[in-house]
Amino acid sequence: MKKASLKDIAESLGVSKALVSLVLNGKGDERGINKQTQQRVREKAKELNYIPNQYARGLRIGRTNTIGVIVPDISNVFYGKLCKAIEQEAYAKGYNLIISNTYEDTQKEKKLISDLINRNIDGLILASSFDSKNEIEGLRENKFPLVLVDRVFKDFEVDSISVSNTQGAKKAVEFLYDKGVKKPVCFTISPVYISSINERIQGYLGALKDDTEAKLFQIPHDSIEDGVNQALIELKNSDYDGIFCVNNSIAKAILRQANLEGYDLEEMEIISFDDIEIFDIVSPKISSISQPIYEIGRNAVSLLIDRFEKQENHQIQHLVLDTVLIER
Amino acid sequence: MKKASLKDIAESLGVSKALVSLVLNGKGDERGINKQTQQRVREKAKELNYIPNQYARGLRIGRTNTIGVIVPDISNVFYGKLCKAIEQEAYAKGYNLIISNTYEDTQKEKKLISDLINRNIDGLILASSFDSKNEIEGLRENKFPLVLVDRVFKDFEVDSISVSNTQGAKKAVEFLYDKGVKKPVCFTISPVYISSINERIQGYLGALKDDTEAKLFQIPHDSIEDGVNQALIELKNSDYDGIFCVNNSIAKAILRQANLEGYDLEEMEIISFDDIEIFDIVSPKISSISQPIYEIGRNAVSLLIDRFEKQENHQIQHLVLDTVLIER
DNA sequence: CTGAAAGCGCTTACAG
DNA sequence: CTGAAAGCGCTTACAG
Does the model's pTM come out above 0.85? Predict the structure, then answer.
């Protein structure tokens, strides 16, 4: 198949490519091009099934109306929904998305970032696995349009959207105490330098009535089931009576392991960061700290587009959204 | 920020753009370019942080190493995992992905397809919501590289990968009978013309011992919870004693509604197409017909790339993979 | 061993 | 009201 080009339309109509381009980009009236000619151009374009080559256009214009999105793992419900929110907002504003996963692999993340920039994305929304802002300091220096979501860096002059993780974790632990829990334990996940995870741990520690009783299980992100199983075994013979999970993956693993191995968790009060649908239908009941996912996604796109449009006049923002306790 | 171009490297080294291009594309030795010169080029490229402009390259070469993926809804676990599988395989082979959701909106699907083609994707992996192959007949005629996944069309000469839905549904119903179910009902989802859904319904009907007792609840895809709730109410006062769900969304809704409304499903034997993790941890127990998601994704990418490479010599394939019954 | 030139398909000053 | 030309950044025959 040979795609029709501007030239094909121009030649078959006996006009110039420039005229065709103008008409098709809606600048016909503004440039005072004959209405009839405009009509003929549009008809011919339709007839030849003309589709503009966005790469030629991008090369010329320097913009591609494409936003890159990098998340740890889109098959994690949280990031799946986040991408959905981003996609809806982007689509409504005429932008396409290129979504990629890092699986917490920082080497892959580096490669993805340069790959995406190669592809001339206009900007990047990033939930980074990097342990420091240094990895992306270059982007900031080059003023590359970037918005950090979910995972942010301290003192980094780049747009960011996160939730009040420390507060949320505190709410969670206080909820456990309210429910009569005496000794709450925290299930966290590696890598712990991730800002969101780290803040939730701080929140847990800060909310403890007696911080000599702090107990953290650090589950490796790439062997959650095993890690959780080990932790549950240890827990069985202890007097810990409440669990705070730093994210939904951990909570799910606890449910599954308890089920598979037949651990009884009915005596255990459990609360998890991230509210996911299945918490409605499982037992034991799991309460949760719900994040405003759609707000995060929407704002990420808005900030990025504001940056495109306002250029130098864009004000860097650090949005921190509130979480909601969902009691079950 | 001004990105470095071939020209920048060439000028600062006093060589031609052509030479730089050759070296950077690994054709230096093949073309017998001085080793030292090659070294200098590579160093300068690194120093200037050179990133090739893929749009210029794509424009010139006519290929972009980008694959488009269109699915109904990436936040549905099945499609989330499918995209993950596709992404892993594509990434390993040096391709990028542009993923989009249709939310079963055929107008949006049309627009997405032309949008993606605008962007010069090399090929498309499509889980279509269209009710007929006519909508994409044009792609086939134009020999646009296309692979259908999950949802396919009869007598359509385009690569496709699906599972044996009819067989799978039969297995499911037979499982219900084996468990002592007398009258199994089928929860299906609109739009029912979707091949995978339709075949599962046919499988259900075909496996019934007494087809005068066929009972289908057709749940609208955009109000699943309500639809399921209505159906469950009707079911409460009936003698149906087994449920076959055509997909995981339905099964999840049944669990949630039963939980919220306090319906007792313990007497009910339930099986669902799609095996999702939460089935391990919910009650009542839900058995499932598991699809080989990773195989589907991997094969989709392989078929597409084979098509790129072999061009006219590529053999159209219709892969139909088997499902596995998971009993709980 | 290396360079000059053409051209991918588009948009945009510039000219008339 | 319309066209000719330049140029975005790249690759690839072609020439020497």
Answer: no
